[in-house]
Design brief:
Length: about 600
């Protein structure tokens, strides 16, 4: 493998081959179908001066046609990463690839990684090894390869960067051809970093009823334990009009629930002269009756100045009264070592204000157990905070030092202590039942998915609390009223009220599971089922005709900006190409 395979490459032209045309040279490649005649030679297998050069030999008997393969996609991590995975699946399907749930039958594995914790990366690494053992082609995506592309176990493998997911088709095609491609660059406009790939790209929603919209990428913090910052970078927000357009399109496709996601939704807009409340009010105008909006994670510093407006928005009937605000620790000294840029009093101010102004609001939070330097006293402060607020949703994480982060170089808490603190906090969390007092209530819920055990449908009430309802297909995608008759630690069970009104978010039929969303004209006219030769915008394809002559075909794809866009390819051209190829084979025989 040439050394170039191990370097971080910036564009699709950086494919590992010293003989490949350079981008400058490609400007002068002939752009028409040019016949090239060769003289007949009496001796077979003797190459004449008119024969094609060594890189233009007869096409192999097993013709590799990118676009005809099956692809298995595995995504780890947050909803932002899941949204990226949906976009990549949609683009690949729009170009003819078959997205399969069966990893064994797939020709290529697209592994979309998470770098938050060691276990997630371990699963990612093991999946790479399993793919290689199974002789599968592999393309890597997500935060792990973006943050550390030079790791040994990533050498020689194709990588699609977190801001380059709109070019996944190119990377997959070149990988199928045997090349190693790495696209890790940033999207920029006049030198200014953009939020990422376009929002109007095709996607395959994991749940056709739920649209995940990334409102920005990156953040304004520099937390000492965070590896995601290395991958997602500084804050870059999408314009409000693009986000609203995406939401409207989703509702037109039968979506009834929208999740807004990012590394920090509270920081939205600070880089483009706007803010989160302004975006939310615009989105609320676009939400039809019977549909709901869920806001993603926000850090305390950036929500403090918008508390009044946020309370009004969270009280809106089409917005879940739910907010995910990570505290991480209730010790100010630990928060300082984490560089979290707030103190415990700030967190309490946010929670207390919202609880007062938004009755019944669900506050979810995160806690890290065993951060470097955390003392027993520090940890007890965290235990007291949980006891005080009795969070119904609590994400407990044992600290893992991530390579390259400042926290990895700090004095570590012994593993046994970290484990015990995680266990103690988990026991406290499971000591209370947050929903017992709601038995007997009549609640309005939105039904969006099936439970893991397939015994119930899953719905959420206005506070985004999980309610299990009977598996009646007529309920899916509908907002109905139920009577709560049972409560557990993480859920309630409800029975639909027979005489209650049923709300439908949209008269549009939801897309079928696996159906591609957001097909613009650009993608609707894309060739499919193996006809999409487009990774190289200027390379000529040598084809031998039945008469023994060679023609060089250069298909009409052109590069514009950061990605290749389709001009036109007809099925007739493919038929001609195949006819020439197979006819040439018969002539030789």
């Amino acid at each position: 493998m040439p050394a170039a395979c191990d370097s971080v490459l910036e564009d699709i032209e950086d494919i590992v081959s010293a003989e490949d045309l350079k981008p400058h040279d490609r400007q002068f490649v002939r752009r028409n179908v040019l016949p090239k005649v060769r003289k007949r030679n009496s001796q077979k297998n003797t190459q004449t001066d008119d024969d094609p050069p060594s890189d233009r030999q007869v096409l192999p008997s097993t013709l590799i046609i990118p676009g005809a393969q099956k692809i298995w996609i595995r995504t780890w991590g947050c909803s932002h990463n899941n949204s990226d995975g949906e976009y990549m699946a949609g683009q690949l399907a729009a170009y003819g690839y078959k997205i399969t749930d069966n990893s064994a039958e797939a020709d290529l594995w697209l592994l979309n990684s998470c770098t938050v914790k060691n276990p997630a990366e371990d699963h990612f690494r093991n999946s790479i090894k399993k793919a290689q053992e199974g002789k599968k082609k592999v393309v890597l995506a997500g935060c792990v390869p973006q943050a550390q592309p030079r790791q040994d176990y990533l050498k020689g493998l194709s990588i699609i960067g977190v801001q380059q997911i709109d070019r996944v088709v190119e990377v997959v095609e070149e990988t199928i051809k045997g090349h190693s491609v790495r696209l890790l660059g940033q999207k920029k406009d006049n030198g200014k970093r953009l939020g990422g790939a376009r929002l109007d790209l095709p996607k395959i929603r994991k749940n056709p009823l739920i649209e995940i919209i990334s409102i920005n990428t990156g953040c304004l913090n520099a937390c000492t334990y965070c590896k995601t910052k290395h991958a997602r970078g500084d804050l870059a927000s999408y314009p409000i009009e693009e986000l609203v357009d995406r939401a409207k399109q989703s509702f037109q496709e039968g979506v009834c629930e929208i999740w807004l996601t990012s590394e920090d939704t509270g920081a939205y807009g600070r880089d483009i002269g706007t803010d989160l409340p302004t975006l939310l009010w615009k989105l609320v105008e676009a939400i039809p009756e019977g549909a709901m909006l869920r806001l993603g994670m926000t850090n305390p510093p950036y929500i403090l100045e918008h508390l009044e407006e946020m309370a009004k928005i969270l009280n809106h009937p089409r917005v879940y009264a739910f907010l995910h605000i990570p505290v991480q620790s209730a010790s100010d000294s630990v928060l300082m070592d984490m560089k979290r840029e707030y103190c415990v009093a700030d967190f309490k101010q946010v929670v207390d204000f919202l609880k007062e102004k938004v009755p019944g609001i669900t506050i979810a939070t995160d806690i890290i157990c065993g951060f470097p330097g955390e003392t027993d006293e520090d940890f007890q402060e965290t235990m007291k905070l949980v006891e005080q607020y009795r969070f119904p949703s609590l994400f407990i994480n044992q600290f893992y030092p991530r390579p390259g982060t400042p926290a990895a170089k700090m004095h570590q808490v012994p593993a046994a202590v970290k484990k015990q603190r995680t266990k103690d906090l988990s026991q406290l969390f499971h000591s209370y039942n947050p929903y017992d007092h709601k038995i007997g209530e009549r609640q309005r819920v939105l039904v969006t998915e099936e439970s893991f055990d397939s015994n119930y449908y899953v719905a959420h009430n206005p506070f985004y609390e999980q309610v299990l309802v009977p598996k009646d297909p007529l309920l899916m995608g509908k907002m109905v009223e139920v009577n709560i008759y049972e409560a557990g630690k993480h859920f309630m069970k409800g029975q639909p009220v027979s005489d209650a009104r049923v709300y439908t978010a949209s008269i549009t039929r939801p897309l079928a599971k696996g159906e591609v969303s957001g097909l613009t004209e650009e993608f609707r006219h894309a060739p499919q089922n193996g006809t999409n030769w487009k990774a190289d915008p200027s390379a000529e394809i040598p084809v031998k005709t039945p008469l023994g002559s060679w023609i060089s075909l250069q298909l009409p794809w052109q590069q514009e900006g950061g990605g290749l866009k389709i001009l036109s390819v007809s099925l007739g051209l493919l038929a001609v190409l195949v006819m020439f190829y197979y006819g040439g084979m018969k002539t030789e025989l």
